[in-house]
């Protein structure tokens, strides 16, 4: 049952100006038996990392409707569930069942007390950017609508469905970059004490609203200019309590379409929220349609979904736990399957190359697909086979694993598949989202699909045919050896190469920018399949068996520019920390990226030099920014994680005060 999924929606009611005191107080009406939340930061352990369209389709009404259960008077609010739904489970795929909807009682409490004087003349205007920096839960700004009248969006995970992470905006340049500063910031734990550590959310920005997620699968909608909270959705306590069963807890964002915001929860739930209000429209469990896709069996979700032509496209995580990877499509209208069946990335246990294996598994899809809107072909990256480090039970190349796969987005039928690493023994996923680019190759224009893997190798294929254009271009140290029971050291290590962090493309230079990790691992294998098949929890033995860090080589990061015309490196720069977030480029020749110690950088793409840095007080950065404009002004939005989940929005003329560097938190996760 998914009841009481709460929505906190802030709306304003006019009250007498001289009746409101400046020292605002919060009055909360809580559900029976529910204790009041505090604003204290939680004591979670540091986060566990994963190795971790067209914008006009997404209309956003000018002003949110005051239908939720929060009334702001004397800066007070009450929080109540808007609706509750009973989920009727079933197991057979593609059999539709109704949701029974329970009407939720809605009560409004008006709190009028402790009034003295205020000179706001009866206006509940949104606070200015300078006033709204890092508000606490007790003075969360009141949403009165979206600031601005004209918008240039960042409409999906990778800007467009091509995932090339290139924004055609030019206000911020190399000449004025030193005027860039913080317009507003929020500490997400202060907005809600239930926010968990870690954040790998890639923001989506549509018509002046920033949509982002947290590692605990909450969703926030902010006014992009002021930082005002428009709405905030969170799973109920019962659902959230089950998230700890997942091997990796991360969420990489949302998709927006048809007036809805779509997101995946780590427990394999697909969720549709009202884009305007954040109210829950529908939630399904993937196991309602795909047998066995449960967190108890080792499945979980990290990826952001993609919306295209009425469908929501998702991938699956958890294949390191010995479960089969897949890609699936659901109708955005009702979250029922859009394809006859999922596209499975590996065969069932007992068939094909898993004919004699004690396992079935491999082929996770960690990140969103790229979609060609001219051909309806979808391209996604697929992870390693399992067991990760023991291959005797899975002979041969293990097709579709460590690969980029192209399918028909309307039917799920295979178009082509190209493998980066055959019979992988090192957890060398193709983890990051592929990019679809129109680039110059040997002085001729071609439509390409490009992707860099944890193997430390970068590839380019003809988008239509899958023919190789550039093959296995190295961007990291390559020195791999088969794992042994005693252990062997290989480069790259278990983190890559290029992990889940996305690349960016710059059309002006024809460069692909790759976020890299230079760090070895010591890989140890089981001595036989029986040994590898001894689980601590379902699927855990699929690692087969362990890897270790090499203490003498803590590693560092790189940004590598590949000239697509020649297939060779144009340059490579070194960064102190492993590159875990990815890059975003702009038309003015800049690329923005963050680091694990909290530093944000601007790279002059043509020169190959970092020309601006900003320290965010050690806010661990593991996602690339989105770039957008409102009324012609350009903004850059980053999310940060570690023990300080935050959102920072930068613009020209913002606050240039910087903080102290933090401790880089790389985590121990091995995969996409």
UniProtKB/TrEMBL annotation:
Biased composition (Basic and acidic residues): 31-55
Gene3D superfamilies xref list: Quinoprotein alcohol dehydrogenase-like superfamily
GO MF assignments: oxidoreductase activity
Cofactor(s) the protein requires to work: pyrroloquinoline quinone
Keywords on record: Oxidoreductase
Keyword presence, Oxidoreductase: yes
Region: Disordered, residue numbers: 31-60, 122-142
SMART domains: PQQ
Domain Pyrrolo-quinoline quinone repeat: 154-471, 483-636
A Pfam family this chain is assigned to: PQQ
Compositional bias segments (type: Polar residues): 133-142
Residue stretches of biased makeup (Low complexity): 122-132
Keyword Cell membrane assigned: no
Family: Belongs to the bacterial PQQ dehydrogenase family.
UniProt-recorded name of the protein: Pyrrolo-quinoline quinone repeat domain-containing protein
Species of the source: Cohnella fermenti
């Amino acid at each position: 049952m998914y009841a009481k999924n709460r929505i906190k929606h802030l709306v304003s009611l006019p009250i007498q100006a001289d009746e409101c005191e400046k020292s605002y107080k919060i009055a909360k009406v809580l559900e029976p038996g529910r204790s009041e939340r505090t604003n204290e930061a939680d004591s979670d352990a540091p986060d566990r990392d994963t190795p971790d369209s067209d914008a006009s389709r997404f209309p956003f009404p000018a002003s949110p409707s005051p239908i939720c259960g929060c009334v702001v008077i004397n800066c007070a609010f009450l929080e109540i569930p808007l609706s509750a739904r009973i989920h009727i489970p079933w197991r057979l795929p593609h059999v539709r069942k109704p949701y029974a909807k329970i009407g939720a009682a809605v009560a409004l409490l008006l709190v009028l007390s402790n009034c003295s004087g205020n000179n706001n003349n009866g206006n509940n205007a949104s606070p200015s950017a300078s006033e709204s920096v890092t508000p606490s839960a007790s003075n969360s700004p009141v949403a009165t609508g979206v600031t601005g009248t004209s918008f240039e969006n960042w409409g999906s995970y990778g800007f467009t469905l091509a995932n090339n992470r290139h924004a055609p905006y030019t206000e911020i340049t190399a000449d004025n970059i030193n005027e860039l500063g913080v317009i507003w910031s929020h500490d997400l734990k202060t907005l809600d004490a239930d926010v968990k550590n870690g954040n790998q959310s890639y923001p989506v920005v549509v018509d002046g609203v920033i949509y982002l997620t947290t590692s605990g699968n909450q969703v926030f909608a902010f006014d992009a200019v002021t930082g005002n909270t428009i709405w905030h959705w969170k799973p109920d306590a019962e659902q959230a309590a089950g998230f700890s069963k997942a091997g990796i807890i991360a969420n990489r964002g949302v998709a927006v379409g048809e007036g809805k915001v779509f997101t995946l929860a780590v427990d394999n739930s697909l969720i549709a929220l009202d884009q305007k209000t954040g109210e829950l429209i529908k939630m399904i469990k993937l196991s309602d349609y795909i047998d066995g896709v449960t967190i108890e069996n080792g499945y979980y979700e990290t990826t952001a979904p993609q919306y295209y032509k009425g469908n929501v496209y998702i991938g699956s995580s958890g294949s390191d736990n010995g479960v089969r990877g897949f890609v699936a499509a659901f109708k955005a209208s009702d979250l029922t399957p859009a394809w006859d069946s999922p596209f499975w990335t590996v065969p069932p246990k007992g068939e094909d190359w898993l004919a004699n294996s004690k396992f079935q598994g491999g082929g996770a899809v960690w990140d969103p697909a790229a979609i060609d809107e001219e051909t309806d072909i979808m391209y996604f990256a697929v992870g390693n086979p399992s067991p990760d480090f023991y291959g005797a039970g899975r002979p041969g190349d293990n097709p579709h694993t460590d690969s980029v796969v192209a399918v028909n987005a309307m039917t799920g039928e295979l178009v082509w598949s190209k493998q980066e690493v055959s019979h992988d023994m090192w957890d060398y996923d193709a983890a990051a989202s592929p990019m679809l680019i129109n680039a110059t190759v040997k002085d001729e224009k071609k439509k390409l699909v490009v992707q860099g893997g944890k193997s430390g190798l970068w590839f380019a294929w003809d988008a239509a045919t899958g023919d190789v254009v550039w093959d296995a271009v190295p961007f990291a140290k390559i020195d791999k050896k088969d794992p042994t029971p005693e252990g062997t050291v290989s480069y790259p290590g278990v983190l890559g190469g290029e992990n889940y962090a996305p690349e960016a493309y710059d059309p002006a230079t024809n460069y692909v920018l790759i976020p890299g990790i230079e760090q070895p691992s010591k890989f140890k294998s089981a001595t036989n399949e029986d040994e590898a098949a001894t689980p601590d929890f379902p699927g855990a033995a699929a690692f087969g068996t362990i890897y270790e860090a090499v203490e003498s080589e803590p590693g560092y990061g790189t940004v590598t520019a590949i000239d697509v015309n020649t297939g060779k490196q144009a340059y490579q720069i070194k960064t102190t920390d492993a590159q875990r977030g990815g890059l975003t480029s702009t038309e003015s020749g800049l690329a923005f990226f963050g680091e694990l110690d909290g530093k944000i950088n601007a790279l002059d793409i043509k020169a190959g030099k970092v020309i601006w840095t900003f320290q965010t007080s050690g806010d661990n950065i593991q996602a690339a920014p989105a770039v957008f404009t409102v009324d012609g002004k350009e903004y850059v939005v980053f999310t940060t994680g570690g023990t300080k989940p935050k959102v920072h929005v930068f613009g020209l003329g913002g606050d240039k005060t910087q903080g102290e560097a933090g401790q880089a938190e790389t985590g121990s996760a091995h995969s996409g």
